[in-house]
Model the fold of this input.
Amino acid sequence: MQSETTDKTTMPAGSPAPAGRTLPEGQAMLSVRNLKKVYQTDGGPIEAVRNLTFDLRAGELACLVGPSGSGKTTLLKCISGLMAPTEGQVLLDGAVVSGPPKKMAVVFQEYGRSLFPWMRVRENVELPLKNQGVPKAERDKLVDEALEAVGLSHVPMSYPWQLSGGMQQRVAIARAVAYQPEVLLMDEPFAAVDAQTRADLEDLIRTVWKKLGVTVLFVTHDIDESVYLGQRVIILSSSPTVIQEDLVIDLPEERDQLNTRALPRFTELRHHVYEQIQLAKQGHRPAAAH
Amino acid sequence: MKPANILKALLYAVGLPAVLVLIWWAATLGAKNFFVPTPGTLLSTFAETWFGERIVSDVLPSLGRLVVGVVAAIVLGIVAGLLIGSVKWLRALTEPVLEFFRAVPPPVLVPVLMLLMGITDSMKVVVIISGCIWPVLLNTIEGVRAIDPVLSDSSHTYGITGAARVRYLVLPSAGPQIMAGVRQCLSIGLILMVISEMFASSSGLGFTIVQFQRSFAIPEMWSGIVILGLIGVAMSFIFQFTERRILRWYHGLREVENAV
Ligand SMILES: Nc1ncnc2c1ncn2[C@@H]1O[C@H](COP(=O)(O)OP(=O)(O)OP(=O)(O)O)[C@@H](O)[C@H]1O
Ligand SMILES: [Mg+2]
Done:
């Protein structure tokens, strides 16, 4: 569990750039090191991410929050090997990521465009497994479980475009869950679902996370959600992006939509995150980033 | 469909043709224009002319060349289009050349190919391919280029690459564009089938029609034109049937989008 040694106060004083929590070599599942991304566009270069450094322990659940345009999606694309960073590197289990790693699943922000419109719901969830050569019987079991878990076992034969936005997003989540990844990246996955479904899906993510022991990096706009879900919240500054704060969420392991959210500590943490994001929006930057 | 609806659809389908034939019949009632036969004459000539030896000697060979040419053009066009569309440098390299070849009207190739290949079946098939391949090829390239980047990223992160990518992502995604190309390809194919047989040929539909015209067998000539029209209609039906099946998802998606 969260011990004092993993708190950000252990960060070396006067480090060249503000950094998130790092672990000794060999202990991190996912390492982001001095990551910088500059897009080269016709209108000139755009610096989406200036300098990010942090580690995720195997089996950790971390949330990433930050103002719109702060480069959250950019970061996820670099981590998932879809895009090469301009500087710095991403390591998965000690190996440098240079292309999409096998045991990583990504749920994209644009859920509607991430499903195959020519395949039915079931086929969409099944395809990655089929492509990996998972035997039919096991595949069926995983797909059924995943659809059941997101509450979509009643529409396996529909096409994605016949479903509502929230349902489409749940198909994308089911696909990621059925894939049984070691690392799961999610980019604002609940943006399109209603409050009740959202609460259910939050609990689903925590259940799946505990069951599979998967390492999760969860991007969200929602401060309450980040505090409720994570063991840790990484707050990004506004662009050019650095880490504003890497906060340990010291809430009890067992979380519950009603009771956890009613804890005084929950309120404190959410206040803290809220303040930091307000500061980030106003352009306040952590001392070392100037 | 309910029987009443089927009847309605049928009435709509045959209504206009019936009216046109009626007008034609009325217009040719008293007239004795040598170049325009009456519907009755045409019908009897049609049966006499085509239901016999000519099916084997002219119609079927022409159809055979048309089918071979069109199928080859579609397959070649899709394969080359997938390649060119997926590989950036290949696209940059081939684009100007493709534009040039596409701009050359295929009929002018007939004399050239005649010199190179002789008056053979393969020459005629090559003429058909050389004209039909462009819409398929260029549409496939466009379709491949237009793949949604989010969908492409999704496939990529789930390890769907290589042949699986072509099968599950690229082909279906480019499907609507490819089918639009195939539709154009079919009508060009029919035109080129006729043209390839008009020069120095000794059999085939195009040859026979020109032959009739030169020997002033006017009703026979018209009946040949009717045959071509019927072949065109049949091709269009087969195409629509296939397209509906392959692109069912696409039509459904469009309907949903339009309803919003
Ligand atoms: N493909 C691209 N080309 C050029 N600039 C880009 C590209 N993608 C993102 N950017 C720019 O990089 C910056 C960060 O974008 P990004 O999408 O990563 O932000 P985000 O934190 O995910 O925002 P949101 O919360 O709105 O999803 C923005 O200024 C954006 O304009
Ligand atoms: Mg984003």
Q: What stands out?
A: The longest strand of chain A covers residues 28-41. Strands of chain A lie at 28-41, 44-57, 61-65, 87-92, 95-96, 104-107, 183-187, 215-219, 232-236, 241-248. Chain A touches chain B at residues 77, 80-82, 100, 102, 104-106, 108, 110, 113-119, 127-128, 131-132, 159, 161-162, 175, 179 (CB under 8 Å).
